[in-house]
Design brief:
Number of helices of chain A: 15
Strand order of the largest sheet of chain A: 2-1-3-4-5-11
Distance between the termini of chain B: 25 Å
Radius of gyration of chain B: 20 Å
Radius of gyration of chain A: 22 Å
Strand order of the largest sheet of chain B: 1-2
Distance between the termini of chain A: 64 Å
Order of helices and strands of chain B: HHHHHHEHHHHEHHH
Number of helices of chain B: 13
Order of helices and strands of chain A: HEHEHEHEHEHEHEHEHEHEHEEHHHH
Largest interface: A-B, 49 and 50 residues
Oligomer: heterodimer
Number of strands of chain A: 12
Strand content of chain B: under 5%
Helix content of chain A: 40-55%
Helix content of chain B: over 70%
Strand content of chain A: 15-25%
């Protein structure tokens, strides 16, 4: 019986693998000259790039943010007729393996969403002449900065202004009268965006307290994993639930917003969360969540930096691109649904025609700052 | 005298395998060859290109070496969840020593001391205090993570380039790999160390009643595991150049998967064989690499790997022993 099941599974596997095989996989090597990439306008004015093959490395496929980033990049690649291979990898070893495997697959460029191990994979990309764009993660270590300093294949690193994100969350809590604040502190010490947010949080609170007679009391805690909001909140409520005014989480943790937990917080403890994608319906239903939200500009910016480079029109950058996205708060289920409808629920928020107009760093920055809550709601966020 | 008799009997019983079992042992190997053939065809020969094969060797090196060493303790039924954390701590300390002395030998010696001491600590707790190795390894894992977090005040630490350039050479890796495998093969398949550890995985009580000092052979197994982990950790730093808190984080799971994918029971026992970790580790990387070369997205890769894993389990593993005596 077991052998029959195994044979059936093996047959299914073979059929599905054959279905997954790409007709373009036996072909092209990476183009050595970016300008040589085919970008012939078709009859209707569209740019077709069917020979291009890009890779995307995300740190997890079980977290809302990287999955959203990969899916949005996939949508943009589909729009432009570009093949995209998504690989999940976390940590320096796996990132290096993923880069090596993608290079072996002959990709023309790579999007990577973590800077871990840049010291080992950047020289490899430089040697092979394959460009990379780093999104949602900054190189901040001394050795990492040395690795990208003179690397011509490092097209840019994009991040939101993390200081502004954290400051906005704290000030919103202060304005609502909060003095006892639970802080979901990222557990990791690896230098990255989350580590920065943690450092910024503590710096801003210290500065505020120095100027305001220690008005804020912070109760710091962490979940079992970096994005484990439920684990953090359970222990925080159990230990300080009777005195807490609000909780601030600088991680996303959307998938761990548990309805029962939020129901316990309802009317007692507000939640201020920084997130870039998922809208956490359960949290809104409990009227607990006051969400700081920055939009979908990562993927669009990453894609256009890569696209412009590969089609011979590289954006002039110094390698450090901090997108200043307009922060906005959503504190009702109704607004959340409207936002999803107008912005997130679509395959990708920006249409192809709009993306093709992003041909300079100035336009890129304008795109990010144009995505305000009001403009998304009335559908004019692409009018820049 | 008793020991000699028992070993001879163990050897004899090992020789009595029927054709069905031999075929089951071959399935992972056939699967590996099948995967290589499939990916070679599906990628239009790109999979078999020399660059890709060299890359696969460097990618799988750490897992192969670690899994070879771990097989000795898996054989007697122990599971070591501290592999990743111990490796991380040894890498951090080795980097610190390397930065201070710029001496590769001292750096490796640091890895060796940390990994062997950690392995022996679990072994001693398991043997002398009669505590299952799993909770001991888990506790050690937490301790190592805590120490590593404290040591990594700057978030990460870098291995000096001079040491990397001296050590991370393809020919050195091939020599280390071949020597490691031959030594492990001899120890596991042709000495009392391997035979008795396998026998303990089948039924430890019987082995004890045969007059064999089981603690001694368990500690030898842990020592071998420690030495192999040290070699793997040292080469890992030289490959990646940087150590942080995510270094080696999933190593224990990878080793477990490699051993099972190679056709060896996670509970060890007389059917354990040293080829299992080798085949399993190579298969793991062949699948990762092959799927990406084919352009299969990560979402499907996880799915396919799960199916392949299930097929191996269905074809290779028989019903677990329920009686008091070994099969």
């Amino acid at each position: 019986m077991k052998k029959i099941v195994a044979l059936i599974l093996a047959s299914l596997l073979m059929i599905q693998l054959c279905a997954c095989g790409s007709p373009t996989m036996t072909g092209s090597a990476a183009p050595s000259d970016p300008a040589a990439v085919s970008s012939e306008p078709s009859g209707n004015g569209e740019v077709m790039n069917s020979d291009l093959h890009l890779g995307c490395i995300v740190f997890s496929l079980s977290d809302a943010v990287p999955v959203y980033q990969a899916k949005t990049l996939q949508a943009y690649c589909d729009m432009f007729g570009i093949k995209l291979t998504v690989v999940a990898a976390s940590g320096a070893e796996e990132n290096l393996e993923a880069v090596e495997n993608l290079l072996a697959a002959g990709v023309d460029g790579i999007f990577i969403h973590t800077s871990t191990g840049v010291e080992s994979w950047m020289p490899l990309l430089e040697e092979r002449g394959v460009p990379i764009v780093l999104g949602n993660g900054l190189v901040t270590s001394e050795s990492g900065l040395a690795a990208i300093e003179n690397a011509s294949m490092f097209l840019g690193q994009i991040n939101y202004d993390d200081y502004a994100v954290v400051e906005t969350l704290i000030m919103a809590a202060v304005e609502s009268g909060a003095t006892n604040i639970g802080f979901n502190s990222p557990s990791q010490v690896t230098p990255n965006s989350l580590g920065d947010r943690k450092r910024f949080f503590l710096e801003i609170v210290e500065k505020y307290n120095a100027e305001n007679n220690n008005a804020l009391t912070i109760y710091e805690g962490t979940g079992n994993a970096t994005y484990d909001f439920a684990g953090f909140a359970s222990s925080m409520i159990a230990s300080h639930g009777n005195i807490l005014d609000c909780i601030i989480t600088v991680t996303t943790g959307d998938s761990t917003y548990q309805p029962l937990l939020l129901a316990e917080m309802e009317g007692k403890i507000d939640l201020y969360a920084a997130t870039v994608t998922d809208m956490a319906s359960a949290a809104f239903e409990s009227n607990t969540l006051k969400l700081y939200c920055a939009g979908c500009e990562y993927a669009a910016a990453e894609f256009m930096i890569m696209y412009n480079y590969l089609t011979g029109n590289p954006l002039k950058t110094d390698g450090y691109i901090t997108l200043t996205a307009a922060p906005f708060f959503i504190d009702s289920l109704e607004n959340q649904l409207l936002l999803e409808e107008n912005y997130y629920a679509k395959d990708a928020p920006y249409p192809k025609e709009f993306l093709l107009t992003i041909d300079s760093l100035e336009r890129l920055e304008a795109m990010a700052s144009a995505a305000t809550f009001e403009r998304i709601m009335d559908g004019t966020f692409t009018d820049i | 005298m008793k020991n000699n008799v028992s070993t001879v009997e163990l050897k004899k019983s090992k020789g009595k395998s029927d054709g069905k079992h031999d075929l089951a042992r071959l399935i992972p190997f056939i699967g590996l060859i099948g995967s290589i053939v499939f990916f070679s065809i599906a990628t239009g020969g790109r999979f078999l290109q020399a660059d890709n094969i060299t890359m696969l060797l460097s990618q799988s090196f750490v897992l192969i070496i670690t899994a070879l060493g771990s097989t000795f303790i898996y054989a007697h039924g122990a599971i070591d969840v501290s592999l990743g954390s111990v490796s991380m701590l040894s890498c951090i300390l080795a980097c610190m020593v390397a930065q201070t002395t710029n001496n590769g030998v001292l750096s490796f010696a640091t890895c060796l001391v940390v990994c062997v001491l950690a392995a022996l600590l679990i072994g001693v707790i398991a043997c002398k205090l009669n505590i299952r190795p799993f909770p001991a390894a888990l506790s050690l894992s937490f301790i190592c993570q805590g120490i590593s977090g404290e040591l990594l005040t700057t978030g990460q630490i870098i291995m000096p380039k001079a040491i990397i350039e001296a050590v991370y050479q393809p020919w050195i890796m091939i020599v280390v790999l071949v020597v490691s495998f031959v030594v492990c093969y001899i120890l596991f398949e042709h000495t009392k160390v391997g035979h008795i550890n396998k026998a303990m995985g089948g039924n430890e009580t019987t082995v004890k009643l045969s007059g064999i000092n089981t603690d001694k052979y368990k500690l030898i197994a842990y020592t071998i595991r420690g030495v192999m982990l040290a070699i793997a950790s040292f080469f890992l730093i030289c490959r990646v150049a940087v150590v942080n808190t995510s270094t080696s984080s999933g190593l224990h799971i990878d080793v477990m998967l490699a051993v099972v994918l190679g056709g060896m029971s996670i509970r060890g026992g007389p059917k354990s064989n040293i080829f299992a970790p080798l085949i399993g580790a190579i298969t793991t990387y062949v699948l990762n690499n092959g799927f990406i070369l084919m352009g299969v997205d990560a979402y499907y890769v996880q799915f396919f790997k799960g199916i392949i894993f299930l097929i191996v389990i269905l074809l290779v593993f028989e019903k677990e022993r329920s009686g008091p005596l070994p099969d």
